[in-house]
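Protocol step 4 of 6.
Sequence for Fused MFS/spermidine synthase (Methylomonas albis) entered exactly as in the expression construct, tag removed. Do not edit the line below.
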Amino acid sequence: MNNTPQPTAKSLISPVILFAATLFSSATLMFVLQPMFGKLLLPLLGGTPAVWNTCMVFYQTLLFLGYLYAHWLSSRLGSQRQIQIHTALLIFSVIALPVALPENAAPPTDGDPTLWLVWTLFLAIGLPFFVVSTTAPLLQKWFSHSGHHSSDDPYYLYAASNAGSLLALLSYPFLIEPNLGLANQRLIWSGGYIGLCALILVCAVSFWRSQADNADDEVLSDTGIEPPSTLEQLRWLALAFVPSSLLLGLTQFISTDIAAVPLLWIVPLTLYLLTFILVFSTWAERIRPWMLAAQPAVLTVFIAYSFINPATLPYWLDLILHLLAFLLAVMVCHGELAKSRPHPQYLTRFYLVMSFAGMLGGLFNTFVAPFIFNAVYEYPIMIVSALLLRPGFFNGKWFLQPIFPVLVLITGLTIYFTTEQLFDYLDLIGGALILLAGVSYSLRHSPIGLGVLTGVILLFTLGLHSMASNTIYQKRSFFGVMSVRDTVIPDENQRPETVRELYHGTTKHGAQRLTAANVTTPLTYYSRPGPIGQVFAEFDGENQHWHIGAVGLGAGALACYAKEGQLWKFYEIDPLVVEVAQNPAWFTYLSRCNKHAEMIVGDARQSLLKEADGSFDLLIMDAFSSDAVPTHLLTREALQLYFSKLKDNGLLAFHITNRHLALKKVMADHVNQLHLAALLQEFKPETDVPLVVATDWVVIAKQPERLQRLQQSRLGHWQKLPLTFGLQPWTDDFTHIIGIWK
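Step 5 output, structure tokens:
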């Protein structure tokens, strides 16, 4: 029976419309703020997935604190006091507008910047984000006392909140970013925030009117409903923790190990929000059986191809399988969460536990996993955990469910420790694992058995891939997973030769031949036949005392273009890259060719600001985060900075190879707007020399005469940059990834 008071005649608008609109607006502002502020941070930390994941932890932590505040306010105080305190908070929060980075914000260059990033976020957007985060639980609690006929189950308003989140998430890259610069985005967001505060106050008035004829203690009255047990709350915790961790794990995994595609992080978050909309909607009960049935079926194909044998699939199909498996896992977890939601009396406690679990998931992925794992192992761990959370965990003789998976594990370990030539059996073991993936479907009604068997399969799969890839070193840092691998390839005479390669995720960032005749030969994007080799061949002889700056170190191959008397500086944002490149156990370019080169750790733009004007003869820009150039290194202001540090006859060589973005359009626009001269070479190797690869470079100078030697050179085909039409110039205030998609 609904004991809440009936709406008064003074109501001018339906409470459902009012509260839903406010929740929708709040969520929209929250999810516009996140990518907007991410762009503000980009010039300081680059575009690594770890920056996004750390921001997510901050958002989840403030979300938890906002939910904690809402729980305390609504469960401890009467309606009048709630409205007074929250109104004061709304007014006070306006002092933080407009949102902006703190003055002189600069990340540390000698350590992990995670804590610095969290503190910067707190100072810049902490207060308004906290206020926005309180809206969902507090307004739903207020609505449960509105007397509306649906107020006894206000959880469906959570779908409206997530719909706003989803709309904002998709609108930002396709609508907001292409049409508004950051300065205007900040001003409009601040205006929207003030509008939201006004809507919340209207909701507060509606809530106060609905309680006008009742004593404050009635708002807090005990309805006689049993509070949720500790076990039930722990179940909520697990059901929210796993999807949160899975979201960040998948984002990190697909951004570095499958496809380094710009804006790819949007897709998992979109699916994550979509699950909340569906499970809290009126369709939830009809969808749930289909999700439960589809999860183990898709899992069989997913494990067999995306983990055990991913090379058989094109990257886009592999990506789809990962996203589909993620969607089903999160749907099942969130479906069980929504199904177990308590009476509105305990609504804020339910959301509090959910937000706490989300925060824990983010903390685990950002602060724990990078220190205990040398790869993104938290992702497969959460895949298994999602299976264990399927309904029916304790059904029947649950303790017998793991018997078969444990026998498989014991058998596999026995083979591993008793077989000396295990490598010869890798194909056979891979086939056996695929067969086990098929067998796992028979355990679909046994969550423990299905989860444990999947865990066993993934355990052996990861070991299998490690042996097959010949990884000799692997380490994880804030910026991703770095690995060194020995690969056998055919040399010029088709004889097998071992080369050493540096990978960031699945993107190669350097390679070195180990034979004595070729150990100092620059390879991949920096080969002597390629564009950068041609630049050195044409210009290097004119001055023995060049001052050269190189942004992006990789394995250090560029160091082998150094000559006696030259001064070289490498700018590298990831200290782990410097550690690997300087260690002769892995690569010897630096130790053999240029052991005195100066290493400057930190973001290139921030570091170059400290250099004297007119000090460089050559600047080489080769900064990549996986396969994408951080956009703040491509803006007009960035190019102006580079040329302020070059001598009048200095050269800027820009590496623009990219599978997804036509970066030459951006460079052509800058060259035209700044009245510079530039030549482009889209190099394709004409011979089968090992590790000489296709690569695109642009060389820019202040005067066209400076580039005549290069244009007339017979070493390669240099041409002018193509004309661009309708491209809005990229600046620190405006960049548009979609506009240059190939």
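Step 6, annotate. The CA atoms of residues 79 and 216 lie 6 Å apart.
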